């Protein structure tokens, strides 16, 4: 199970739009959730 808290915040952010300019908010949200699956406790 993956905590998706904050995925929508990231997906709508300027950083996400710069990182994935050709993808919509849904794809950017999936990227955020995937990253949490890989590293659930990142050092942000």
Report on this structure.
The chain is mostly helical. It has helices at 7-11, 14-19, 25-38. The model has no long low-confidence stretch (mean pLDDT 89).
Describe the sheet with the most strands.
Answer: none
Number of strands: 0
Series of H and E elements: HHH
Structural class: mainly alpha
Give the gist of this structure.
It contains 3 helices and no strands. The chain has 44 residues and is mainly alpha-helical.
Q: What is this structure's SSE topology?
A:
Elements: H1 7-11, H2 14-19, H3 25-38
Overview features:
mainly alpha; 57% helix
């Amino acid at each position: 199970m993956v905590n998706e808290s904050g995925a929508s915040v990231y997906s709508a952010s300027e950083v996400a739009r710069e990182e994935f300019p050709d993808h919509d908010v849904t794809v950017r949200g999936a990227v955020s959730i995937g990253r949490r699956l890989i590293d659930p406790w990142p050092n942000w």
